[in-house]
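Lecture 7 notes: from sequence to structure.

We start with a single chain of 152 residues. Read the sequence below before looking at the structure.
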Amino acid sequence: MTKTTFESASELMGKEGLKVGPSDWMEISQERINQFAEATGDHQWIHVDEEKAKMSPFGGTIAHGYLTLSLAAKLMPEIIEVKGLKMGINYGTEKTRFITPVKSGAKVRGRGEFVEIKEVPGGYQSTMRVTIEIEGEEKPACVVDTISRYYP
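Now the structure, written as tokens:
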């Protein structure tokens, strides 16, 4: 894991193009997929029916796209830290793409690249392109522009 640390939110200014990460690899277990299905009510067979999914083009169950997307919230703190904050919030996302399905048992990790940094009332806003990679796969699972706000 490679974490980039900023002592203050103002240090983010001008960092467009800076690449951060990667995070550690984490396994996407069937148990995690099932828990996500329970939490969201999305029990589509390709995610939770291991026997039926063996007959699919993927050869087994795959993680929900939104499960993969939600991992950005776990992986980002592993690759970036901004100190001296009263509060940091997730402000939203843009340009989300699910490129390669994540098979049950696969390992993923995150990398980031600052796309835009700007001042907003009371703080700073960062848009980071997060790429969630799959171990052993050429193409990533997900690419998303995440928007964070930092309030010193």
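Residues 4-28+62-151 form a domain with the Thiol Ester Dehydrase; Chain A fold (CATH 3.10.129.10). Keep this in mind for problem set 3.
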